């Protein structure tokens, strides 16, 4: 079982089932497909709480993306073996808890001060089949 902590702004979207994946920096170990995921807010604080019941990990794949001031200009999954088509960027951003790709790009730039990112995409709802073709 692997636990992930989320910012309070993501809690309602996780509970509503609209945020169904998370993007994380590399670390020693991320969740594997089939493993149970735990979602918390405020881990390692007195105000920590569990957001939802444990869910099985549906996928855990490498992700890399580049960020412009108001947009993402490339999203690669599976170590660059698959490029997500730009027409799916807004849907991708919604799956990650944002209203659209512009909001996601602004959040990533302001929160992480990054222009490129390499890490892991972990989800508890399958990726849409049309993205995998």
Describe this structure in words.
With 133 residues, the protein is of the alpha+beta class. The chain has helices at 11-16, 89-95, 101-112, and strands at 2-6, 21-24, 36-41, 49-56, 59-67, 72-77, 82-83, 116-123. It has a single domain (2-127), classed as Archaeosine Trna-guanine Transglycosylase, Chain: A, domain 4 (Roll). Helices cover 19% and strands 36% of the residues. The radius of gyration is 14 Å and the shape is globular. It contains three helices and eight strands, in the order βαββββββααβ. The longest helix is centred in the last third of the chain and has 12 residues, at 101-112. The model has no long low-confidence stretch (mean pLDDT 90). A hairpin with a 4-residue loop joins strand 6 and strand 7 (82-83). The strands form two sheets. A five-stranded antiparallel beta sheet has the order 2-8-5-6-7. It has a three-stranded mixed beta sheet with strand order 1-3-4. The N and C termini lie far apart (30 Å).
Question: Secondary-structure map with pairings?
Answer:
Layout: E1 2-6, H1 11-16, E2 21-24, E3 36-41, E4 49-56, E5 59-67, E6 72-77, E7 82-83, H2 89-95, H3 101-112, E8 116-123
Parallel strand pairs: 1-3
Antiparallel strand pairs: 2-8, 3-4, 5-6, 5-8, 6-7
Please state the overall shape, judged from the principal axes of the Cα atoms. Answer: globular
- Percent of residues in β-strands: 35-45%
Radius of gyration, in angstroms, nearest whole number: 14 Å
Main sheet: which strands, in order across?
Answer: 2-8-5-6-7
Give a count of the beta strands, DSSP E runs of length 2 or more. Answer: 8
The CATH architecture designation is Roll
Distance between the termini: 30 Å
Largest sheet: 5 strands, antiparallel
CATH top-level class: Mainly Beta
Q: Give the H and E element order.
A: EHEEEEEEHHE
CATH topology: Archaeosine Trna-guanine Transglycosylase, Chain: A, domain 4
By secondary-structure content and strand pairing, the structural class works out as alpha+beta
The percentage helix is 10-25%
Please, how many helices?
3
Low-confidence region ranges: none
User: What is the residue-mean pLDDT, rounded to a whole number?
Assistant: 90
